[in-house]
Amino acid sequence: MTMTKMKWIATVFSLWMTGLSPGVLDIPPAQAETTLEDLRREMEALKARQQDLQNNMQEIKNLLLGKIAPPPIPQNVTVSLDNDPFKGDPNAPLTLVEFSDYQCPFCARHFRETLPQIEAEYIKTGKLRYVFRDFPLDIHPQAERAAQAAHCAGDQGKYWPMHDQFFSNPRAIDLDDFTAQATAIGLDLIRFNACLSEKKYSEEVKKDLKEGQQLGVTGTPGFFIGRTDATANQVKGARPLIGAQPYASFKAIFDALLAPPASPQVPPSPGTSQVP
């Protein structure tokens, strides 16, 4: 549309809104009608674009509110344990695998409120092996580097102290370097900084992330609970549990998997009496 035509439309629309006839401008009736029709089409197009925008905004809101559920995570899957850090007996009957992010507030809540109970009741009693795998999300800019830092601390036998340091103090992973955390847990800073600067564990962290995605994990924390296959270094028949669930949710799955199988009912032999 030309600038001249736009000016004509603006003028006609202004007159129309004030109740005056376009004839006061000596606009030929046919031209005035055409101009008004162009204006109507432009307004309808504007309304359509506005409706599209509202629809898109509603879809985004639905996603944020969780009204559009992500695809369900498959049940009874096999989860590799890779060579990731673990707590507990490697031959424990059950294994819990957590895919986690050091900047995730829900992961920190699980660390504070639920993991201590799991550790006391199941890990320390030899019933459960707990494996931590990295799943740094794009929305957390320092999470991937923090995961690498924890593995670098692991080179000096201090993986879990660094892990605990990050989750106990969320502001610690907002720093540009992790020297203060490394100092606090007594690391050799030269070795630690060299490991971190050369990104020694970059591929290891990315591997965990990729395997988590293949299992259907989309957010953190994400858990898989199943029977330990120590020979194959796997968890078989694993059940997913997503989010910072209460301790009772974990306990219910642990106890169900640990319970002995029910004895089959043997029908009575013909000609025998049964006690009522």
Brief digest:
By secondary structure, this protein is an alpha+beta fold. Helix content is 48%, strand content 13%.
Your description of this structure?
- By secondary structure, the chain is α+β, with helices and mostly antiparallel strands.
- It contains nine helices and six strands, in the order ααβββαβαααααββα.
- It has helices at 3-18, 29-64, 105-123, 143-154, 159-168, 179-184, 189-197, 202-214, 247-258, and strands spanning 77-80, 86-87, 94-100, 128-134, 222-229, 234-242.
- The chain has a six-stranded mixed beta sheet.
- Strand 5 and strand 6 form a beta hairpin.
- It is flat, with a radius of gyration of 32 Å.
- Mean pLDDT is 82; it is low at 272-276.
Question: What is the secondary structure topology, with strand pairs?
Answer:
Layout: H1 3-18, H2 29-64, E1 77-80, E2 86-87, E3 94-100, H3 105-123, E4 128-134, H4 143-154, H5 159-168, H6 179-184, H7 189-197, H8 202-214, E5 222-229, E6 234-242, H9 247-258
Parallel strand pairs: 3-4
Antiparallel strand pairs: 1-6, 2-4, 3-5, 5-6
Helix pairs in contact: 1-2, 3-9, 4-5, 4-7, 4-8
Q: From the coordinates shown, what is the CATH architecture of the largest domain?
A: 3-Layer(aba) Sandwich
Q: How do the strands of the widest beta sheet line up side by side?
A: 1-6-5-3-4-2
Strand content: 5-15%
Helical proportion, percent range? 40-55%
Give structural attributes.
Glutaredoxin, disordered C terminus, 276 residues, six-stranded mixed beta sheet, 9 helices, 2 domains, alpha+beta
